[in-house]
Design a protein that fits this description.
The structure holds two protein chains of two kinds.
Chain A lengths: L3 H20 L3 H26 L3 H31 L13
Chain B lengths: L13 H19 L2 H33 L2 E3 L4 E3 L1 H22 L20 H8 L7 H14 L6 H19 L6 H33 L4 H8 L6 H19 L7 H8 L2 H26 L4 H24 L4 H20 L4 H27 E4 L6 E4 L9 H4 L1 H15 L5 H15 L3 H27 L10 E3 L5 H18 L1 H11 L5
Antiparallel strand pairs in B: 1-2, 3-4, 3-5
């Protein structure tokens, strides 16, 4: 099992996350896709850290986890506020702003 | 094994520490100060910390001019000429923007919902309004955002870049959702900004991972060294750099990553729109400048054609779509997209005058933007039945005849529009002249021609609004349906500062330009 496989996995997870953001309608699921993208970047960082024999990538992964947690706090606050107003978390329903 | 304490040059971090520290103190003020005292304490804290940051920047400049700059925290933060200029501009424009945020009308209403967590139209919201609650949390949030923005152009490695991006973005997502009026639009704008912003920052992070894989380090200096040596991992580097640039171009609202801009600018509370339109763009262009000029210059022929394309499309789309807008805030949003394109022209010039011209353009654009949105926040609709002053009159037709009733205010707005359009004797003209001549110097005359054509087309919709304000009678409904609201006066101070800055930068630009070309030297 070579380390390159982990990079392939990270790329696949990133693509799945990006696809989720683009095709799913529920804001929570969209958000889940974004978290998947962040964590795929973490996997890539850790794998590269192992390849280079360098600790920086692992440290970055810790920072990203903290940032992701902060992002969840802010994101869920916004999504819950919208849900309480409209009784819907679908990104298709938020369409008042249009050109 | 012994632990060696790192040596930190705290003095070089003073501007950042002052602003972030004031943000932390602001959170404590919200937790412990009595309600009546909170607003004045917050305003004092904000003004003192930002003025202190300006002073700190000025003091640091003496050392930096002598020795070219310092690396702080093991190279995580680079304090050099462009960093100090951008931190100073961010503190100055942020201070002017926060004056508008702090202002309230003569009936003691600020721009923010009494309780942003209350469901719009609920009993709880009505109760909060009657009790006179205020969302004073906007001050610490704005200070955190400003702190992140001041780190952004100073970041010396990809991790700091990502953290600064999140520190500046997360408070802005929340601030966007706190409008007092039209709360559904505000919440919607907040969600769109959040989802798209988080999406873009995930791209930036994955790009950072790829570049780390290429270089074996996240430090800019190491990456720049690795980039200049040919290797068979180049695809990794190019893909990573493109993803990082996508994340940054999203923040400046460049086409094709601009789709959030009009919605967010329209939905956010107007003082916040002015604040983020000005300072976010300044900070993000600061980060792009360092990346393009210091880290990736060896990739010039891989990345530059893409950036040329982005610059052209951004100028054209911003200008053309702004022409058909009927909402003042949306029009200014598309105009800010076009301005991102003009700044990119200076960025891709890849000459030292490119750096100083971009810095000048950002200062002129920032002051005019804060001033323009400050005026938008004053022009309000009057409720036809009760005669009460309600939300902002953002439809273009509601602005007709404003110049006849409020000539000074409309005159100031006209000045800002002329500066956006790049008419001589305004800061916008000097900025445009500087970025286009930098592009010519960088052998990109064709790009400068596209820029000139786009700004000539842009004059149309700016002048149309001026004509509407001064030479059209108030149409349809009686002229009283639009009014200019009375306030505590802070907004007028901000508008006055914007007017003075715009005229000074237009009439006497040479001292500023001379200073900027001295300062526009990056640490290697």
């Amino acid at each position: 099992m070579t380390l390159a496989n982990y990079l392939v996995l990270a790329s696949i997870l990133f693509t799945i996350g990006a696809t989720t953001v683009l095709v799913r309608r529920n804001a929570i699921i969209v958000f889940l896709g974004i978290e998947l993208m962040l964590n795929s970047a973490n996997l890539a960082f850790v794998t590269f850290a192992r390849m280079h024999g360098d600790l920086t990538g692992q440290v970055v992964a810790f920072f990203v986890m903290v940032v992701a947690a902060a992002e969840v706090v802010v994101g869920l606050a916004i999504i819950v506020a919208i849900y309480r107003t409209r009784r819907s978390a679908s990104v298709d329903d938020v369409n008042l702003l249009k050109s | 094994m012994s632990f060696v304490a790192p040596e930190v040059q705290w003095a070089a971090l003073a501007p950042i520490i002052l602003v972030l520290g004031a943000g932390v103190v602001g959170v404590l003020v919200d937790a412990f100060a009595p309600r009546a005292a909170r607003r004045p304490v917050h305003i004092g804290l904000t003004v003192v910390s930002l003025a202190g940051a300006l002073v700190a920047v000025a003091l640091l400049w003496r050392d930096v001019r002598a020795d070219g700059g310092v690396e702080v925290l093991g190279g995580s933060v680079l304090v050099d000429g462009p960093t100090l200029v951008l931190q100073g501009v961010i503190a100055l424009v942020g201070l002017v923007g926060l004056l508008v945020v702090a202002d309230r009308t003569d009936s003691h209403e600020d721009a923010f919902a009494p309780s942003a967590a209350a469901v719009p139209g609920s009993d709880y919201e009505e109760l909060a309004r009657r009790k006179g609650l205020t969302t004073t949390e906007v001050f610490p949030l704005a200070l955190f955002a400003l702190g992140g923005m001041m780190i952004f152009p100073a970041a010396g490695n990809l991790l700091t870049l990502f953290i600064a991006l999140e520190v500046l973005s997360l408070p802005l997502y929340l601030l966007t959702g706190t409008a007092r009026r039209r709360r559904l639009l505000s919440q919607e704008a907040s969600m769109k900004y959040f989802l798209l912003g988080a999406f873009a920052s995930a791209f930036l992070l994955f790009g950072a991972a790829l570049v780390y894989g290429f270089a074996g380090s996240v430090r800019y200096a190491d990456i720049a060294r690795a980039v200049s040596v040919p290797s068979d991992l180049d695809p990794l580097l190019v893909a990573g750099s493109v993803l990082i640039l996508v994340g940054l171009l999203f923040k400046v609202g460049a086409v094709p990553f601009h789709s959030w801009t009009p919605d967010v600018y329209q939905g956010a509370p107007t003082p916040i729109t002015g604040f983020m339109a000005a300072v976010t763009k300044i900070a993000a262009f600061g980060a792009i400048l360092r990346l393009v000029y210091v880290v990736l210059p060896a990739l010039e022929w891989d990345l530059m054609p893409a950036l040329w394309g982005v610059a052209v499309v951004t100028m054209l789309v911003g200008t053309v779509v702004a022409i058909v807008q009927t909402d003042v805030k949306r029009m200014l949003a598309y105009s800010s997209i076009a301005h991102a394109g003009f700044v990119l022209v200076g960025v891709v010039a890849m000459t030292s005058s490119g750096i100083s011209s971009v810095l000048f353009y950002l200062l002129a654009y920032g002051l005019a933007t804060v001033g323009a949105f400050a005026i938008v926040s004053l022009v309000r609709e009057v409720d036809a039945r009760g005669g009460a002053v309600v939300a902002e009159a953002t439809h273009v037709s509601q602005w007709s005849g404003l110049g006849q009733r409020h000539p000074v205010l409309a005159g100031a707005f006209a000045l800002f529009l002329l500066s956006f359009a790049g008419i001589p004797l305004t800061g916008g003209f000097t900025g445009k002249f500087a970025v286009f001549s930098a592009a010519v110097e960088g052998d990109l005359a064709w790009l400068a021609v596209v820029g000139v054509v786009a700004s000539a087309a842009a004059v149309f919709f700016y002048v149309r609004l001026i004509v509407l304000m001064f030479f059209t009678d108030p149409a349809g409904t009686p002229g009283s349906s639009t009014t200019v609201v009375r306030t505590d006066g802070l907004t007028h101070v901000a508008i006055g500062l914007g007017v003075v800055g715009t005229i000074l930068l237009g009439v006497l630009p040479s001292p500023v330009l001379g200073f900027l070309s001295d300062a526009a030297v990056y640490l290697p």
